[in-house]
Structure formats: C-alpha cells, structure tokens
Amino acid sequence: MSGTENGLRRRRLLTASVAAGVLLAGGGGVYLAVAATAPGKATPSGTTDAARAAAPPPLRLESGTDGGTGIAPGEPDPGGGPNGTVYTAKGPLPHGPSSAAVHRPEGLVTSAEVTRLAEALGISGSPALVGEVWTIRPEKDGSGARLDVARKAPGNWTYSWYDGGPAGDACLKGKACPPPGETKPSPGGSPVSEAAAKAAAAPVLKAIGQDDAKVTATQVMNGSVRVVNAEPVVGGLPTYGWSTGLHIGPDGRPVAGSGMLKEPAKGDTYPAIGAEKALAELNEASKGTGPIGIGGCATDPPATVPETGKTEGGVPDIGRDLDEPVTGATDAPGAPCESIADRVAPDEVPVTRAVFGLAAQDVAGERLLVPAWLFTADPADMAPYTVTQTAVAPEFLAPPAKPSPTPTPEPDEGTSPARQIESYRTEGDGRKLTVTFWGGVCSEYTVTATESADRVTVRVKETPIDPGRACIAIAVEVTKPVTLDRPLGDRPVVDGASGEAVPRR
C-alpha cells in the first residue's frame, strides 16, 4: 500500500477523527524514535550497550497465534474455516506510531472507588470486603441491587438486580414461581432511545473514569432493555476487549452491568509495525486449517507431486482461480490428500478501516492491553466485525511455549488453561449452580466447586477430545451444572482461575 502523503490524505477521509489523529501523527515514523528504550533489531548502529540493556522484555502471547489475532466471542473465526480468509484493504493503510506501550492492571481497588461506582448506579450501602471481593448486597431475602468488585486490579465488577421470589406455600408451583434468587421476567414496555440510554450510562462511565469512551447503544434485549457498550480510551488509544456494558431498563435506569474499575497503568514501550505489515501477518495467521475430520495423509506426498495448495516451487497457492492449473500437478487419479476443501479458494473479506489501538491479550498469565491494529472487516454476507492483529514488532514477541513432553498435571498444579467463568444461576433450593463460560469446539469441560463459610470457588477443567489433531480456535458458549453441599445463600461465587467474583444471572 502507498505510504506517500497523498495516500495519507486519502486515509484521513476513511478513519474517525480522533483515531486518525493518533494514526497519522505517527505516519512514516521509524524505530529510531524509540532506540533509547527499545533496542534489538530496531536499534540503529552505534547504539550503546547501556541502551541495549534497557530493551523491554519479550512478550509471550498466550492467546491467538504468533501474531496475536483476536475476535470477540460470537464473531466469525478470522481463519474462515478450512479454506482460510484473505483480508484485503479497500484503500491506503496508515503507518501508525513507531512505538507504543503495553498497559497492565496495577494496584488494589479501594472502598471509596466502589462507593463512587455504587452511587452512580443508585445503590445505597457501604461496601464490605468478603475475601478478595468488595460487595454491596441486599439484606434479608436477597432481593434488590447487588454490586461485586474484585479487589485486585483491574477490578472486575458486576451489577445486578434480583427479586428474592415467593417462598413456602405462598408460591403456587409452576412458571409463576421462580426459584429464589432468579431474576423476574422482563416487565415489558418499550426500550428507551439510544440517546436516553447513553445519557443514563454517562454518570456510571464518569464514575469509573471512562467518560471519553466510544459508546454504542444499538442492541436491545428482551424487547425492552437497551444495552450500552463502552470501549474506553486508555493512554490516548481506543481499546478492544476491555469494554463496559450496561443494561438500561424501560424506566431509564441501569438494571445490570459489568466492566473493570481500575484503568491499566502504562508499562514497557515496544517498537510498533504499520497497518500494512500487520494486515500481512493477519492474513498469514488466517490461512485455512485444511480439511478437519476423519482421514488425512498416511504418508507424505511423492516427491514428483507438489503438496496440495502449493506450486512446484513450494510457494503457497492461495489466490489462483479455481480453473487455473497448478504447475507440476498431475492428472493421475488418486492424488494424495486432496479433497473438495483443498480446491476451494479462501474467502476474501474487505477491510474498510484500520485503527491503531490496544487489544486485550493474555501475557504470561496476566491480562494486558497490548498495542494492536483494529481492522474492520466488512463481508458481503454478514454485518461488519472487528479483527485485531498485534502491532508489537515481531522481534519483541517470544515464541509460543512448547508443550511439555510429560503428562499434563491436574488443574490445581497450575498448568491448565485458565477459563473465565462468565456467569452463574441457582436452581431449586440453591444447591444447584449452573455456570456459563466460553470454551472451544475440540474440548470437553467439567466443573467442580469448593465451599467455605464465606464463598464458593468454582473451577473448570478442560480435556481435549483429540489432543493430536489440529483444531480451529473458535469460541463457543458452554453451560455446565455443579451441585453444592448446602444452599449458596449469600455467599459469592468466585472463579477459581482468576479469583474474581462471578456475576449472577
């Protein structure tokens, strides 16, 4: 793509004003701007050993591939299935800044910060620290507003409203009698307008320091509840995967919500790549996985027959027409490992916007905001979606950890994948929990609960169905039950992997 001033002027017409300012101000920047703090391959000749010693540590991304591609749950897999995806920019791409900093959660949430959020939500009462969770909960039968905030940064918080429900013989059995703690059905009515929903969310966003966030309010739930989503600005950059969500009822008041209370602190600064290189890396990571299922190659293809999907020289053949012959291929029947999926061209998806920002990534067991390009993909057959690509220069990305040759220890030995539990609900007398979390299509999951007087800790164990087979990294929502020894009562449910409170739904 063109990197000239004319190309940059055209790009200004395609990007949002604030984001474009961030992008174009750094246009044409080189690594010399960060040579003093980010040496290595990006350091010019003549740099001193002292400057090299100041190099930031390499990042080992735990999610995605080497390039750190990412999508939100429910959005299309950027790889596009067995045949892959090719993302094509519909115009010049920006250079972006020559360097950017990661941001990491630091510190502890204070009682005053929880109180400020509670007041913005209209919740009365003082927060109490239960284990590692600040909580303001209803008294007596459990009906009313509840706010839970993890004490450790980033301070994940959840807000919900529950009715205790009828008890004893006062409740006629049937649909009219919900279990204790379950939310009542939607009262009906019309959803408030987008403007009214944003206005209702504004005090909450201001209380958590996100009054400059990018806010949308197009989604409606249950016919009467409008959802406000806010993507905060951190370090002057837009974010992805760090959002605040608020549900606004027909009366214009928040009825549920979740987000993070602590703004991440600025960490190490890394050299950054431009959008053109990032898009190339995204396309490399988005190549197809090949046919999935029973079968495959028992042996390598003969030396005289090129591998399927490659030319005779071994160059990937991902852009040819379906009727175009492959050089060196034979028409002999029974060519090894060829299937219909092998012969189909990859999906081509236009990219209509590229913004430099920060995307949530797991790094060495910690959730960080990492410099990334946020690409807007706009396929013809579905709504636009965002796909991200890490913008940290490749020489500062550590290779993925190699799997241990020894058997995988049990989860409590600290090596199993951490799974963030999204929510839970109770059933019956409160002893049955049903938890919901995001998992993969190639694993099975079991849930266990450990009880104490002040909390219930829930863990998820993941078991690959076929560890030796490649699997598409696509998220699916998983719901699993677990039975407690005694009713949950007012004890919070804590995610065993992160130590954070789990919201009740």
Describe the overall structure.
The longest helix is centred in the middle third of the chain and has 14 residues, at 194-207. Mean pLDDT is 73; it is low at 1-52, 64-68, 165-185, 291-335 and 411-417. The protein has helices spanning 5-12, 17-25, 49-53, 111-121, 194-207, 275-285, 340-343; strands spanning 85-89, 99-104, 128-130, 133-136, 144-150, 156-162, 214-221, 225-231, 233-234, 237-240, 244-248, 254-260, 265-271, 347-363, 366-377, 385-390, 421-427, 432-440, 443-451, 456-464, 475-483, 493-495. 12% of the residues lie in helices and 30% in strands. With 505 residues, the protein is α+β, with helices and mostly antiparallel strands. It has an eight-stranded antiparallel β-sheet, with helices on one face. It contains seven helices and 22 strands.
SSE layout and pairings?
Elements: H1 5-12, H2 17-25, H3 49-53, E1 85-89, E2 99-104, H4 111-121, E3 128-130, E4 133-136, E5 144-150, E6 156-162, H5 194-207, E7 214-221, E8 225-231, E9 233-234, E10 237-240, E11 244-248, E12 254-260, E13 265-271, H6 275-285, H7 340-343, E14 347-363, E15 366-377, E16 385-390, E17 421-427, E18 432-440, E19 443-451, E20 456-464, E21 475-483, E22 493-495
Parallel strand pairs: 1-14, 10-14, 20-22
Antiparallel strand pairs: 2-13, 3-4, 4-5, 5-6, 6-12, 7-8, 8-11, 9-10, 11-12, 14-15, 15-16, 17-18, 18-21, 19-20
The largest sheet has its strands arranged as 3-4-5-6-12-11-8-7
- Mean pLDDT figure: 73
Overall strand count: 22
Quaternary structure: single chain
Number of helices: 7
Strand content: 25-35%
Structural class, from secondary structure content? Answer: alpha+beta
Q: Report low-confidence residues grouped into runs of 5 or more.
A: 1-52, 64-68, 165-185, 291-335, 411-417
Sequence of secondary-structure elements: HHHEEHEEEEHEEEEEEEHHEEEEEEEEE
The biggest beta sheet reads: 8 strands, antiparallel
Q: Give the CA-based shape.
A: globular
How far apart, in Å, are the first and last alpha carbons?
48 Å
Determine Rg (CA atoms, Å).
Answer: 26 Å
Determine the fraction of residues in helical runs and give it as a percent range.
Answer: 10-25%
